[in-house]
């Protein structure tokens, strides 16, 4: 059974958990990263021998950087491709990037051959996606979809509209997705299935309101 919420509701719940209840956002990011890492170990369709993390500069990318570090500290081979301007990264992303630098996790570049990797992790956009995808982001998404490797998406496959399940220009076709707290309404539509793959719903301590406990159940 999957309860679903809108992207705006997910952002409100994140904000309430952090600002009103007082769980620090970095704690939530760490918990998200641990769950996503565990989901990747659980999905036997994923070959984790050589990992490429695709990281946007927001908190979705920050989640990806936590996964990168957890994989590295457990002996996996990991590269990070950051897309977007790191100078404009969110504060939590910057903090996670500094931690990745401590572990000397190698960087990948836009012109990289994605076929040298056995799995791609999509941390380009999550609930912050606000317009159609273009430029380097579109190039990376199209390269990921054309690659032999499976992709595991974080929160929402990048480019997928979490409310409607529509593709905003182009979108990641994931083998599996770790969605945070609740699946988003558009992710359980028929048209979203080729993009989300298998959905893991990860409880990371985000506030679960009464309204959501009573929400209608899907599936
Ligand atoms: N601290 C929190 O609130 C938590 C956030 N989490 C993660 O953070 C994500 C949300 O993070 P953010 O709010 O930083 O947003 P995203 O990381 O989803 O997006 C980053 C930024 O991309 C820009 N953007 C939007 N559409 C674009 C486009 N088409 N082309 C280029 N740039 C575009 C926006 O300025 C946006 O702020 C969630 O999906 C989840 O993965 C989780 O770690 C749980 C806790
Ligand atoms: K994503």
UniProtKB/TrEMBL annotation:
InterPro entries: YjeF_N_dom (IPR004443), YjeF_N_dom_sf (IPR036652), YJEFN_prot_NAXE-like (IPR032976). The keyword NAD applies. Residues 10-212 form the YjeF N-terminal domain. Keywords: Isomerase, Metal-binding, NAD, NADP, Nucleotide-binding, Potassium. It catalyses: (6R)-NADPHX = (6S)-NADPHX; (6R)-NADHX = (6S)-NADHX. Binds 1 potassium ion per subunit. It is an enzyme of class 5 (isomerase). GO terms for molecular function: metal ion binding; NAD(P)HX epimerase activity; nucleotide binding. Its EC number is 5.1.99.6. It comes from the Bacteria. Its cofactor is K(+). (6S)-NADPHX binds at residues 59-63, 126-132, 155. K(+) binds at residues 60, 122, 158. The keyword Cytoplasm does not apply. Catalyzes the epimerization of the S- and R-forms of NAD(P)HX, a damaged form of NAD(P)H that is a result of enzymatic or heat-dependent hydration. This is a prerequisite for the S-specific NAD(P)H-hydrate dehydratase to allow the repair of both epimers of NAD(P)HX. Belongs to the NnrE/AIBP family. This is NAD(P)H-hydrate epimerase. The lineage of its organism: Bacteria, Bacillati, Bacillota, Bacilli, Lactobacillales. The gene is nnrE.
């Amino acid at each position: 059974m999957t309860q679903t919420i809108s992207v705006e509701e997910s952002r409100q719940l994140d904000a309430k958990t952090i600002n009103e209840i007082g769980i620090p956002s970095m704690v939530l990011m760490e918990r998200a990263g641990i769950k996503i890492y565990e989901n990747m170990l659980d999905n036997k369709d994923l070959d984790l021998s050589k990992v490429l993390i695709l990281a946007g500069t927001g908190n979705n990318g920050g989640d990806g950087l936590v996964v990168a570090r957890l994989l590295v500290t457990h002996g996996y081979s990991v590269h990070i491709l950051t897309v977007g301007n790191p100078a404009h990264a969110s504060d939590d992303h910057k903090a996670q990037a500094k931690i990745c630098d401590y572990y000397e996790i190698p960087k990948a570049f836009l012109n990289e051959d994605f076929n040298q990797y056995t799995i791609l992790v999509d941390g380009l956009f999550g609930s912050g996606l606000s317009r159609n995808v273009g430029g380097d982001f579109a190039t990376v998404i199209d390269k990921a979809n054309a690659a032999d490797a499976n992709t595991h998406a974080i929160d929402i496959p990048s480019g997928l509209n979490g409310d409607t399940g529509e593709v905003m220009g182009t979108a990641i076709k994931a083998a599996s997705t770790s969605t945070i707290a609740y699946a988003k309404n558009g992710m359980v539509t028929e048209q979203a299935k080729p993009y989300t793959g298998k959905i893991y719903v990860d409880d990371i301590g985000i506030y679960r309101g009464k309204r959501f406990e009573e929400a209608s159940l899907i599936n």
